[in-house]
């Protein structure tokens, strides 16, 4: 019933239309296809098995628009010796019916679209149209590019409207891998890539890239534009899936998952696969840093481009439009070569050049995202080495003013929300992805000095020489042939635009994170002074105190940056006191800190650590002066204030709610108690916490909670080298002292004045909870 057996025997490599397993035909090829189809979906292909008269009779009453009959014709015209022109005619008729529904889905409000019904798509799928399209378009007889393109279009339109179709296609692994092999054909690349992207977006299990036939050869066959679009697909395969459940993001849940999954994840495996492709990273660096030729006045069209982009949310679709626009321009140029006429033409004639610019920006977004993910993976050092070698940072520096952070009027500025998955303009996505890349590149890595130019590196050396301190090894070892060119390095350019952002612009969040990452790690006095000389501290304080900023995300990023900028730095505290020079300003600053300790606790940790160090340098006149004059240090020097913060920090977290965002509250609490232990005052602090409990009429509640938190701390940190190194570098307290202090606090000897158990009355003991047990 499916196909008449063809007697042809061939030696051309084909793939089965169902399982897509490649083989050389040495037996009756079409008999194998028929057998596979009968075995896999004997009932799915309904239309070909029903009498045409019956279908036509029911069509009028059911308003099927002739779709079942078209599916039947499509099936009938898919034989080896069929007239493929008829096949394509049928596909185009189907595509027309389905594309109208797909377009309505794309252009409607998302919520409305989800509630809509798409009868044509449903009918097409119901009568086996999807399976027939897969068979008709992607069987060996479909070496006709136009036929394949039409089939892909039909399948894509179905996927847009019906998630069930997408999931059905995603469940066929061999089909998915077969689609990748079609990408070698440039004529159908965009259609294939678009369909793959939709399929991978709903696939339950992430594919393994090394399962794609000849992946290195496939990647090397791409031109630069195709490679950029391929990065959009790769982003799904190298990023850990978002579980979409807040409970799963707790550290307790993550630790349990890590115990269950000891082997590398598929995303990590795919990252290694990509890094092993010769020339892959080098080509991405060239894509990220290549210049764009912009037409005069392109920025005038930005607002219109952003409006239509709200529905044109697929880079691959934009590629197709750019291709059409290019063809139109070429056709127009043959009719008239008068450049003055083109220059004064209406917007519709000049828009193609604007689209090309935005298209290039969208390509860079995809490339930067892939590079950013790789920088955060297990192969980070290998990626860092390659990015430095291929001069990614100097290349981005040369693009900064002309493309990355072009100057627009306030009317064109769009404030971006904190949700990374929101629909936004290409320009905004590009800026955010660029800032995320800088953050990942600088964070705890010696290559951070590549963000400067040679003159700025000399400035750091001069700061160290003047302060009579040795230069840090990372600065000395920086290869100056790989640093930024020009009058300003990338970090300095970032500081310049950072000061111009509106108070609540979410760009401030990412900008502050990128600058903070430059400071993170072992504290460098020269790095701090480099930024202090450029007015960064005053700018941060203005944003916190005087700008009226109310964004919690932005304020948190500024608190964290301020903490790194001021830590152990006498000059920074002097500058702070010069800006916060009235009681009114100081109270406004404290009010911002008090409003959310989760956001500000890293700054509190910096102040406590700095105060402790300064108090041990009583012979230094500059230190004594700042201790006596600085509002902030005087405030934190009072024990009652430190105890108040300590109580609140412990009280706002528990083991069940600990996340990567708030675990810093636990570590800040530990810093306060470690410093107290050094001075022999740990019993005093524990006793004060007990008294606070009693005053609040919750005896044992706080200390039992703290005991459980410390037990979790041992489970979490003692098996994480990176985290423990970060704690040691940021606090300048040996990790051995962290571990020792936690062990002392968790001691079971109730006679020990340094053990939490000694301060919990017997009736309120809850130390034997099984929360952390396997």
Can you characterise this structure?
Among the domains are: 16-107 and 118-205, Leucine-rich Repeat Variant (Alpha Horseshoe); 638-773. The chain has a two-stranded antiparallel ribbon with strand order 1-2. It has 41 helices and two strands. The chain is an all-alpha fold and 774 residues long.
Précis, in short:
The chain has 774 residues and is mainly alpha-helical. Among the domains are: 16-107 and 118-205, Leucine-rich Repeat Variant (Alpha Horseshoe); 638-773. The chain starts with 12 loop residues before the first strand and ends in a 29-residue tail after the last helix.
Rounded to the nearest angstrom, the radius of gyration is 32 Å
Helix-residue proportion: 55-70%
Q: What structural class results from the helix and strand content? A: mainly alpha
What would you call the quaternary organization?
single chain
Uncertain segments are 1-47, 109-116, 243-248, 294-313, 335-351, 408-423
Q: How many DSSP E strands? A: 2
Number of helices: 41
CATH architecture of the domain at 16-107 and 118-205: Alpha Horseshoe
Task: Spell out the CATH superfamily of the domain at 16-107 and 118-205.
Answer: Leucine-rich Repeat Variant
Question: Per DSSP, what share of the residues sits in E-state strands of 2 or more residues?
Answer: under 5%
Quote the average pLDDT: 80
- Reading off the top of the CATH hierarchy, the class of the domain at 16-107 and 118-205 is best stated as Mainly Alpha
InterPro entries: TRPC4AP
GO biological process, one term: ubiquitin-dependent protein catabolic process
GO molecular function: phosphatase binding
Pfam family, one: DUF3689
């Amino acid at each position: 019933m499916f196909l008449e057996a063809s007697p042809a025997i061939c030696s051309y490599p084909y793939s089965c239309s169902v399982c897509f397993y490649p083989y050389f035909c040495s037996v009756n090829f079409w008999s194998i296809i028929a057998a596979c189809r009968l075995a896999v979906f004997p009932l799915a292909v309904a239309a070909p098995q029903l009498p045409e008269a019956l279908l036509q009779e029911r069509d009028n009453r059911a308003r099927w628009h002739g779709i079942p009959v078209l599916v039947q014709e499509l099936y009938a015209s898919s034989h080896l010796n069929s007239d493929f022109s008829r096949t394509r005619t049928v596909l185009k008729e189907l595509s027309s019916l389905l594309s109208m529904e797909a377009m309505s889905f794309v252009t409607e409000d998302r919520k409305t679209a989800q509630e809509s019904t798409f009868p044509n798509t449903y009918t097409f799928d119901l009568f086996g149209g999807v399976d027939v399209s897969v068979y008709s378009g992607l069987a060996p007889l479909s070496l006709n590019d136009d036929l394949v393109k039409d089939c892909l279009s039909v399948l894509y339109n179905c996927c847009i409207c019906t998630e069930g179709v997408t999931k059905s296609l995603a469940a066929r692994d061999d089909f998915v891998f077969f689609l990748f092999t079609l990408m070698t054909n440039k004529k159908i690349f965009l259609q294939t890539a678009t369909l793959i992207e939709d399929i991978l977006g709903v696939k339950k299990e992430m594919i393994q890239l090394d399962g794609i036939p000849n992946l290195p050869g496939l990647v090397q066959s791409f031109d630069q534009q195709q490679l950029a679009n391929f990065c959009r697909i790769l982003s799904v395969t190298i990023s850990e899936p978002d579980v979409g459940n807040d409970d799963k993001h707790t550290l307790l849940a993550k630790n349990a998952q890590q115990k269950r999954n000891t082997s590398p994840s598929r995303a990590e495996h795919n990252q290694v696969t990509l890094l092993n492709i010769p020339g892959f990273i080098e080509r991405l660096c060239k894509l990220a840093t290549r210049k764009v030729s912009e037409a005069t006045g392109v920025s005038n069209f930005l607002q219109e481009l952003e409006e239509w982009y709200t529905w044109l949310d697929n880079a691959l679709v934009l590629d197709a439009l750019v291709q059409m626009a290019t063809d139109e321009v070429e056709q127009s140029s043959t009719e008239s070569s008068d450049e003055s006429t083109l220059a004064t033409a209406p917007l519709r004639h000049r828009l193609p050049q604007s689209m090309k610019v935005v298209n290039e920006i969208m390509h860079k977004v995809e490339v930067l995202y892939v590079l950013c993910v790789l920088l955060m993976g297990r192969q980070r050092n290998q990626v860092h080495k390659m990015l430095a070698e291929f001069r990614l940072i100097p290349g981005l520096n040369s693009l900064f003013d002309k493309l990355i952070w072009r100057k627009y009027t306030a009317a064109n500025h769009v404030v971006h929300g904190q949700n990374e998955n929101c629909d936004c303009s290409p320009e905004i996505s590009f800026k955010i992805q660029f800032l995320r890349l800088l953050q990942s590149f600088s964070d705890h890595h010696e290559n951070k000095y590549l963000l400067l130019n040679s003159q700025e590196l000399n400035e750091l050396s001069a700061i160290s020489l003047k302060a009579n301190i040795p230069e840090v090894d990372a600065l000395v070892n920086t290869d100056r042939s790989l640093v930024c060119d020009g009058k300003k390095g990338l970090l300095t350019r970032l500081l310049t635009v950072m000061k111009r952002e509106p108070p609540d612009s979410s760009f401030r969040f990412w900008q502050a994170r990128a600058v903070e990452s430059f400071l993170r790690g072992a504290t460098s006095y020269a790095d701090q002074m480099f930024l202090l000389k450029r007015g960064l501290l005053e700018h941060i304080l203005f944003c916190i105190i005087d700008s009226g900023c109310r964004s919690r995300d932005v304020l948190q990023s500024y608190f964290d940056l301020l903490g790194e900028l001021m830590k152990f730095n006498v000059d920074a505290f002097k500058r702070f006191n010069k800006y916060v020079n009235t009681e009114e300003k100081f109270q406004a600053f404290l009010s911002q800190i008090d409003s959310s300790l989760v956001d500000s606790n890293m700054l509190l940790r910096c102040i406590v650590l700095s105060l402790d160090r300064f108090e041990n340098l009583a012979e230094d006149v500059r230190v004594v002066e700042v201790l006596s004059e600085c509002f902030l240090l005087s405030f934190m020097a009072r024990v009652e204030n430190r105890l108040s913060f300590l109580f609140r920090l412990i009280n706002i977290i528990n083991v069940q709610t600990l996340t990567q965002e708030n675990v810093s509250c636990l570590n800040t609490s530990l810093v306060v108690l470690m410093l107290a232990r050094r001075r022999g005052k740990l019993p005093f602090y524990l006793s004060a916490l007990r008294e606070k409990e009693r005053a609040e009429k919750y005896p044992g509640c706080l200390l039992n909670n703290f005991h459980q938190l410390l037990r979790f701390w041992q489970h979490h940190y003692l098996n994480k080298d990176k985290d423990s190194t970060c704690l040691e570098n940021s606090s300048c307290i040996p990790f051995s002292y962290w571990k020792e202090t936690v062990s002392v606090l968790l001691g079971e000897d109730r006679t020990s004045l340094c053990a939490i158990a000694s301060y919990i009355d017997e009736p309120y003991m809850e130390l034997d909870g099984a929360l952390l047990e396997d």
